[in-house]
Amino acid sequence: MPAELPSLLVDIKPGIIDLGWGHPSPRLHPFDEVKEASSKMFQKGDNSPLQYGATQGFGPFLESLATFLSGQDAYIPDVDPHNLFLTAGASQALDLAATLYADSGDTVMVEEPTYFVIEKIFREHSLNIVGIPTDENGIVTTELQQLLENGLQPKFLYTIPTFQNPTGSSIGETRRKHLVDLANEYDFQIFADEVYQLIGFQEYTPKPMMNFDYGEKVISFGSFSKILAPGLRTGWIHASQKVINKFSDAALTFSGGGFNHYASALIKEVIDLGYLASNVLNLKEEYLSRAVQMDKSLSKHLGGVVSYSFPKGGYYFWLKFPEKFDSDGFLELAEANGVSYRPGNAFSESGKFSRYLRLTYTLFEANEISEGIRRLSVAYQDI
Ligand SMILES: Cc1ncc(COP(=O)(O)O)c(C=O)c1O
């Protein structure tokens, strides 16, 4: 008898258009391209992807990744493969980074609001979390400076500098520089979660945090989850040689060898065939058209009720409702009307975001997005 165990992380109730999950579109998975890359890998007759991998990562993969990143307008030219480290995705890498850079009881900082799982990850390390306010230009570095001047001694700051989850905002260049200055002056690391860096809709995307690094403070976390396929569970760290050595020398890395060695060998072929670059272009085009659809539907059905900024990239709309709106309480009504979302307070332990909710435009098709927003407006009229 087959066990009825789930296959996927996503768990959507029947009949519901769930705009809450920040997952990519299954229709856009590059299935044929990955299949071709896989055949190419096996045709080479090299069985080293089946062996324990080098601690920093599979060398040929790191080289292909460096070439790919150097060629992306939203990245920086001349990325050196020595400054890259193979991970099993940003989540795993952030968990390991918390192990390496903080001890239980230490203080760390996050943006408010922030990626909803990160506070749980840091809590599992028994870290004290301090929230730093954000505005439409990302983290407010003057407020951060004030806290530091008043004696806060964090081990690191976790930030999503570009197309933030959940707000979609990006930190401007002046603040990026200020952050690095503060990290050097007050001696803390910057954990820059840059998983959305390469999916910008406009010509200009702010440069990644490594562009501003000095003093070996920045650790950038990249991922193939949002630009290729999350099932591959592969990502990378981009940082100074000193930081890369720390990750390569970690006990966990040494025990099992480089993370996701096999998947990285496959991704190397995907990159070399040019399919990662073409996939990124395709995703940007598709997701922009879905975002436009969501924007149109929001204006049509909830214009005058919600306010938001149209996303310049990434996955999300961050909607602000009128005062007294309670997005936690509204969820049941929305789901009774066949639509779901992530309430604002999921993104902060402060409880300050009842008026907000996050919608994702990547998982569902354009027609489903329109229908989802229509249902949301019907539910809103019932409050
Ligand atoms: C900001 C942020 N970081 C990390 C992740 C997870 O990344 P990965 O799949 O590489 O573990 C997500 C996924 O939604 C995310 O939004």
Task: Walk me through the structure.
The chain is an alpha/beta fold and 383 residues long. It has two domains: 32-274, 3-Layer(aba) Sandwich (Aspartate Aminotransferase, domain 2), CATH 3.40.640.10; 277-381, Aspartate Aminotransferase, domain 1. Helix content is 38%, strand content 15%. It is built from twelve helices and 13 strands. The chain has helices spanning 31-43, 59-70, 90-101, 118-123, 141-149, 173-186, 241-248, 251-256, 261-272, 275-302, 327-336, 366-381; strands spanning 17-18, 84-87, 107-112, 128-135, 138-139, 156-159, 189-193, 218-223, 235-239, 316-320, 339-340, 342-343, 356-360. The strands form three sheets. The chain has an eight-stranded mixed β-sheet with strand order 2-9-8-7-6-3-4-5, sandwiched between helices. The chain has a three-stranded antiparallel β-sheet with strand order 10-13-12. The longest helix has 28 residues, at 275-302. The N and C termini lie far apart (46 Å). The mean pLDDT is 97. Residues 22, 89-91, 115, 160, 165, 193, 195, 223, 225, 230, 235 line the site of pyridoxal-5'-phosphate.
